[in-house]
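Course assignment 3, question 2. Fill in each field.
Student: A.L.
Task: Predict the tertiary structure for the chain below.
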Amino acid sequence: MIDAHIHLFPDRMFDAIWKWFDDHAWTVKHKIYADEIIDRLEAMGVTHAVALPYAHKPGMSVELNAWLGDLARRRPMVIPGATAHPRDADIRGILKRAAEVHGARIVKQHCHVLGIAPDDPAMFPIYEACISLGLPLVLHAGNGPRLTGYNSSTDGVSGAAHTVPVLDRYPELRLIVPHLGCMEEEIFFGLLERFPNLYLDTTMVMVASIPELQIGDRSALARFPGRILYGTDFPNIPYEPGTERLAIEALGLDPEVFVEITHNAAARLLGLPKIQVEGLF
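Answer field:
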């Protein structure tokens, strides 16, 4: 399995993030640091984990990308992501170095954390750098969860209405919207039919722990298996990390569909070997 959505940060940054979650969101069940996170994922049968960093202020991206690249060299099951704050100088240079020096294969941006909408021109250099460097972008563009700790209303800085203009303007951008669009899953499922470079991931929406994120029609996953990636958001979740996988297994999907969601869709995006279904089941 490829977990296409986890988070790895330096210890002090994790401590600050978990305090924010305690104050404004949910209690993270397993407050464990990078190496233990990787050990847990490997024990669960995850072969690769895509680590998604994000910067909440300018000037921290270079150091964060370098830290994650160093970790991935030491723990090769980690696929390092990269980030750049929209107000950083030389966004393309930051992401180019992350890819060429630190092995980053994907970029992450979180509109709620930034307080910047997807269609704000401040984001355009991020998209243009991703396109020119051939890097997919994970963009938290869904308007949930609505948490009190953000500086801006989530509806004002996210949602399908703010995402469609990006898809229209940059059709070549390989864009992954996590959490199946976060409270607008039916709209984003429909957008998969219009935009061939749009992808979604399953992170946190297959379980009942956070009702506002849980999707209604889980059978929709079978309609777009090559465009949906398995992800967990581990460790920043209030339940056991295997819960997401069990919920997908409970759908009784055809083996080909299950393997597409849990491995092959992400493998294509990231340049990893695909696996054959024959002999697995």
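Instructor remarks: DSSP finds eleven helices and eight strands in the chain. The two ends are 14 Å apart (CA to CA).
Grade: pending
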